[in-house]
Automatic annotation (TrEMBL), chain B:
Keywords: Oxidoreductase. Residues 3-344 form the FAD dependent oxidoreductase domain. InterPro entries: FAD-dep_OxRdtase (IPR006076), FAD/NAD-bd_sf (IPR036188). One of its GO terms (molecular function) is oxidoreductase activity. GO terms for cellular component: cytoplasm. Gene3D superfamilies: D-Amino Acid Oxidase, subunit A, domain 2, FAD/NAD(P)-binding domain. It comes from the Archaea. This is FAD dependent oxidoreductase domain-containing protein.
Length: 83, 376
């Protein structure tokens, strides 16, 4: 997964008491790399679901922080008005 | 029966749990309705300084900085005394920082004016060509909000503190003028003491008990770039705009600046913020336009009328304590606040006079804390 996190890291963190994907993100940095979690968060949700015995659709997804993908700073220098 | 229930699992609540557990204080339960750190702690910049302009802030923060050092030694918390650097590009701002410096020196803080050579040394990727002057605070620094909360959480847990995460305290159970526990899902959980450390949300929680506290949540904003190698060590401040930027331990640049916001406003994102923050910082960081913004988020500063926190007993109710209203400085103050609230709970009094000045009753008694000087 991004930020060089392994499945074993995720399983160990869950055992330590990090039992939601927001906490796993901040403890392990999953979802904080360039893909912003688009690839790894679904994988982590799968592991969490298996470990906790909770169906994956019952687990909440991480809050999406804008921008949707990394955006160069120079674009924001040209903002004329808010939307 | 718990000896203490802590409502709110941000840095203040978790630090208090750890501090009391370390002292061997009885049975502690911490309740967090969302996830640990989810309120303000994990939205903050992680800057730590004593270079304020009131006795209370300076004295308490000097102690907090000592305790940050101890946390690093004891738990290996990511903390560094890498300083704060105020940058000016206008003559009038230079007078302002000289005024700050005189107050710092009155309290034995070693802030000093520094030149271009020094800035280049501690902040090699800051452009000094427009710089008129700079103030450096060597005692200041930064810590990782994630790391410092999680290490204290794990340490507190191993010392026997219980954590109930994902459950909301709907109200404090108060009978005959004394806190007797909390209510969760209509069920009473009894405790000898209750401490409210719910940040901006403390105002809503206590309202349900008919307790009014002068606390106003105001949205603030922060944005983060992708990560790089060493760019600048200190947290940097643009004096003209009040904007800050800090390079996180991971290498990202985290930036913030004030934009117009309404008290009790909703947390929503604004393009106007991004425009303002990157405009300010492109002046000092000429490479900034060419890097990527990864994330942007809003969070609350919970403001009090005198911009100082509320720490201590919720008089006249017995066995109820509070620590909130940090007005944007809660993360840095957490270690000293934990120590002071622990002292209130275990001995009925604060550890220092300065903390004693920050009790809730000061607002009713007209004893609000005064800034030593209002500059500019």
């Amino acid at each position: 997964m991004c930020e060089r996190v392994t499945v074993e890291d995720v399983e160990r963190a869950i055992d330590m008491g990090f039992r939601d994907v927001e906490s796993l993100k901040r403890y392990l940095r999953i979802g904080m790399g360039p893909c912003q979690g688009r690839y790894c968060v679904p994988i982590v949700l799968g592991i969490l679901s298996r470990k906790l015995g909770v169906p994956v659709e019952k687990l909440s997804y991480v809050a999406i922080r804008p921008p949707l993908e990394p955006v160069p700073v120079r674009l924001f220098l040209r903002v004329k008005k808010d939307v | 029966m718990y000896d203490l229930i802590i409502v709110g699992g941000g840095i203040i609540g978790v630090s208090l749990a750890f501090k009391l557990a370390e002292q061997g204080f009885g049975k502690i339960l911490l309740v967090e309705r969302n996830y640990l750190g989810s309120g303000s702690t994990f939205r903050c910049a992680g800057g730590i300084r004593a270079s304020f302009t009131s006795r209370e802030h300076i004295v308490l923060m000097k102690r907090s900085i000592e305790l940050w050092g101890e946390l690093k030694e004891k738990l290996g918390v990511k903390y560094s005394r890498s300083g704060y650097l105020w940058l000016t590009h206008r003559e009038e701002d230079l007078e302002k920082i000289k005024g700050y410096m005189r107050i710092h020196h009155m309290f034995g803080l070693d802030t000093r004016l520094v030149g271009e050579d020094f800035v280049k040394e501690v902040a090699p990727y800051v452009d000094t060509s427009k710089m008129v002057g700079a103030l450096f605070d060597p005692l200041a620094g930064k810590a990782s909000p994630f790391d410092s909360l999680y290490k204290q959480f794990l340490a507190a847990k191993s010392l026997g503190v219980e954590f109930l995460v994902g459950k909301e305290v709907t109200r404090i159970d108060i009978e005959n003028g004394a806190a007797k526990g909390v209510l969760i899902d209509g069920e009473k959980i009894p405790a000898r003491n209750v401490a409210v450390t719910a940040g901006a949300y403390s105002v809503y929680l206590l309202e349900r008990n008919g307790i009014k506290i002068p606390l106003t949540p105001v949205p603030h904003h922060a944005a983060l770039t992708e990560d790089f190698g060493r760019l600048f060590d200190p947290l940097i401040i643009d004096v003209a705009s009040g904007a800050y930027a800090v390079q996180t331990f991971h290498g990202n640049v985290l930036m913030g600046v004030d934009v117009e916001e309404k008290p009790f406003g909703e947390l929503s994102v604004k393009l106007a913020f991004l425009e303002k923050v990157v405009s300010v910082w492109s002046k000092w960081l000429p490479w900034l336009p060419n890097v990527n913004i990864l994330r942007y988020w809003p969070g609350y500063y919970e403001m009090t009328p005198d911009h100082h926190p509320i720490i201590g007993p919720v008089t006249p109710i017995e066995n109820l304590y509070i620590a909130t209203g940090f007005s944007g400085h809660g993360f840095m103050m957490a270690p000293v606040v934990a120590e002071e609230v622990a002292s209130w709970i275990t001995s009925g009094r604060p550890r220092s006079q300065e903390a004693g000045n920050l009790v809730l009753s000061r607002f009713e008694e007209g004893k609000t804390v005064k800034e030593l000087a209002v500059i500019g």
